[in-house]
Design goal:
Transcriptional regulator, IclR family, alpha+beta, transcription, 2 domains, DNA-binding transcription factor activity, transcription regulation, six-stranded antiparallel β-sheet, WH-like_DNA-bd_sf
Length: 235
């Protein structure tokens, strides 16, 4: 059996959850030194990690690779959906993805004229303010969510509201004079992969922008989520 086959056995064994070295040996049939050597090598490449008890778990690199695969499908179809959202709302529309402690604008459909919130593709924005940041954080694991709330402009209560109603709004939270509305794009598993947003001046969106645009933003996010469901995109 080749090294890649053995490495695949180790990763497959970790699908069920945290596993000790003895558990890896039992589930893979590999010799203890071989299982240990492969697990440590995979850990070096972040394909395997450790939990607080020192057990082996699937590593963060797998999530990053899966997200990149999902992003390709998202970006292939985001343009027309964002353009339609822009036309329905009359405001600039964006797609944001989280990368660690920042969020990145992955696609955009700008309002063609007049006062608008311009966010170029590739822009890196904070995860501590704005409706897209709320959406990208609201469904995170409890410990990560709590860390994300440190020095954020929104509260745990606000994120609970986001989870309950399925969308977020912000008014002058990220930038003075700007309001926005965002909703989650989900993988077939339900994991939040991205946030669809519309943003513009408070004078047009008002101090309750969700009342104006939440239905359209949620519909656009659902259309993108449906694309991922049809194509079987993973987390």
């Amino acid at each position: 059996m080749g090294v890649l086959d053995k490495a695949a056995l180790v990763l497959s064994a970790l699908e069920t959850g945290p596993t000790t070295l003895a558990g890896l040996v039992s589930s893979t049939g590999l010799a203890r030194p071989t299982a240990h050597r492969l697990a440590v090598a995979l850990e070096h490449h972040r394909l395997v990690g450790r939990d607080l008890q020192g057990r082996f778990v699937l590593g963060p690199r797998l999530t990053e690779l899966a997200a990149a695969a999902g992003e390709d499908r998202l970006l292939a179809t985001a343009g027309p959906i964002l353009a339609r959202l822009r036309d329905i709302t009359g405001e600039s529309a964006q797609l944001f993805r989280r990368q660690g402690d920042i969020r990145v604008c992955a696609a955009v459909a700008e309002r063609p004229s007049g006062l608008r919130d311009t966010i170029p593709v590739g822009s890196q924005l904070t995860m501590t303010a704005g409706s897209a940041a709320q959406v990208l954080l609201a469904w995170d694991e409890p410990d990560k969510l709590q860390r994300g709330l440190n020095s954020s402009a929104f509260s745990a209560v606000a994120l609970a509201t986001v989870r309950r109603r399925g969308w977020a709004q912000s008014v002058a939270e990220r930038e003075p004079g700007v309001a926005s509305v965002s909703a989650p794009v989900r993988a077939p598993s339900g994991k939040v992969l991205a946030a669809v947003s519309v943003s513009g001046p408070i004078e047009r969106l008002t101090r309750q922008p969700g009342r104006l645009h939440a239905p359209a933003v949620m519909a656009a996010a659902e259309r993108l989520s449906e694309v991922l469901r049809r194509t079987g995109a993973s987390e």
